[in-house]
Amino acid sequence: MSDSGPGRAPADELHGFLRELTRFMLRFSGEGAEGVDRVVRGLARTYGGRAETVLVADGAVLSVTVGEDGAGAGGIDRTGGVSGAGGVGQAGGVSGVGRTSGLDGVGMVSGAGGTGGTSGAGGPSEIGGTGAGEGRAAGERVGADETARERAVRKRIDGGQAAQERTGGEQAAREQTGGEQAVRERTGGERTLTSVVSAFPDLPRLDRAFALKAFVERLREERPPLDEAMAGLRRIEAMPGRVPPWARLLGIVLFALGFAPAVQPTWYEIGSTALLAGLVAGLTVLSETRPRLARVLPLLAATLVSLVTLGLLQPGHAHGGPVLIMLPALFFFVPGDLLSAAAAELVGGFLSTGAVRLVYALVLLLQLYVGVLLGVAVTGTPTGALFDTAQDADLSRWVVVGSWAVFTAGLVLAFGVPWRAAGWVTALVFLTLGAQAAVTALIGEVGGTFVAAVALAATVDLLSRPPGRPPRLVLFLGGFFTLTAGSLGLRALTSLSGGHVLHGFHDLMDFVTVVMTIAVGLLAGAALVPSRAEREFRDVS
Fold it and tell me: Which SS3 state, helix, strand or coil, does residue 187 take?
């Protein structure tokens, strides 16, 4: 294992890399708590350490432990005494102040920094090493340098005290917890560093997830130096988008057009979707360079679609309900994947992650709902017009089937999926559709959705394992969208607000049933295949 700088222990280097990897996976990989934990634990073992993670959807507590040979100088004992390489001790110890730092939302939980060779204010918290006695022994071995080292220690003490004065209340907070200042302890020849990682999930580009899988496979097999691994991770994050803005705009339109016949198999639905999806796609591409706009993008998109549908198109009963006209254009924002993933994690025992995902998905769904109502209010449309009765079909069955190929092409462009994975994605979309249609014809819609979810989960898990294959998220997403759980939620909310209580309640029950059916089906599918244990990573500890 390499050291990136003089005096920097391997534990620091491994901790820094795993912290960045955890942040990257939280933001771009689309993995749940189990997937992130498995990769982080496995790579820690590959590099001779151990890692523990406690995850929620947008953050994690990461703890990394690495054995240290002869790392004793500068340790702090449990009583708070300072032991330095120069044999300088100070009863009670001097602690630095905690701070929050890091890159792109990575917060290091900084603890009390020690003196005599330990980190000062703002260092990551550590556990492990030797105590005051070994520090004095180290001082005797380097007695000739005692004076210089004492000056260095005093300088650190002065710096720690000055930092404490700047942050007044933090020392009081430490005293309230029992006055424990010794966050750098050395016991058993090991060092443990703990930090908090924060990253908001963001999946507009699946090419990063694709590159991450290949990157982890290389680390697992070759174990390059950690500084090289860190540089590789940063290259993936900084890689330019594979899809230019005009192609992403086209992809969002195709994504909506391919889904439209599943809502209403009519030419009017396709024509209205082309107009509305073009407006949504333009707004989405514009928001990519305007972070403030991106925060409320679902609300703005729903308001725009509602205004144009109710104020310009004004569909009558002959064209189906206005909600059904709006839905394909808004499908890009419907959080059906988040809702079912949240339910699956709750059922699987990952309560914190599942709860956070569920709340976030509901907030996104409510943004769409409020946006539709804003359009109703501005145009003066009676809420009773928000019905979702479908028009009779005028498209052939083959057009409806072929539309899913258009949908898949749109997904590849809109989400930046590499084209070499397009065949896999298309095959899994039609596998899910086929399983759902066949079983629905035999035992009904709930059974068809369950079997389709089981088949999708098991197939994706097996196909994504071999090296060189697309990651699980890329293979999974297309098939998952075809199950259309989130669209039922929006239909239920708008029907209820329109006064169509019975119809809205029916849609709401369908929504809850489908979400839970998909969640349980995904868990059942995962249980059918052997577990992806950490043994796939090298163990060199």
Answer: strand
Mode of pairing for the β-strands spanning 59-67 and 190-198: antiparallel
Is the pTM higher than 0.90? The answer reads no
Q: How far apart are CA 486 and CA 331, in angstroms?
A: 8
Structure token digits, residue 286: 């514009």
Residues 227 and 304 sit within 8 Å (Cβ to Cβ): no
Q: Does the CA dihedral 146-148-149-154 come out positive or negative?
A: positive
User: How confident is the model over 170-217, as pLDDT tens digits?
Assistant: 433 333 333 333 334 444 578 888 999 988 777 668 888 889 999 999
Structure confidence by residue, pLDDT tens digits, 370-423 = 999 899 999 988 877 776 777 888 888 889 899 999 999 999 999 889 888 999
CB-CB contact of 334 with 308 (8 Å): no
Residue 377 CB partners (closer than 8 Å, separation 6+): none
* 3-state percent helix, strand, coil for the chain, nearest multiple of 5: 65, 5, 30
Q: Which long-range contacts (CB under 8 A, 24 or more apart) does 144-149 make?
A: 145/86, 146/86, 146/87, 148/86, 149/84, 149/85, 149/86, 149/88, 149/116
Contacts of 484 (CB under 8 A, 6+ apart): 259, 262, 336, 514
| Burial bucket for residue 456 (CB in 10 Å: 0-12, 13-18, 19+) | buried
- CA torsion through residues 296, 301, 302, 308, sign: positive
Helix (H) or strand (E) holding 56: strand 49-56
pLDDT tens readout for residues 466-515? 888 888 888 888 888 888 655 666 666 676 666 666 666 677 777 778 87
Residue type, 165: E
Which residues are CB-neighbours of 136 under 8 A, at least 6 positions away?
83, 87, 89
* CB of 220 closer than 8 Å to CB of 43: yes
The backbone torsions φ and ψ at residue 380, rounded to the nearest 5 degrees and listed phi first, read: 70, 20
The tokens describing 126, both together, are 């550590």
The answer to whether 277 and 256 have CB atoms below 8 angstroms apart is yes
Picking from 72, 71, 69, 94, the residue whose alpha carbon sits closest to that of residue 81 is 94
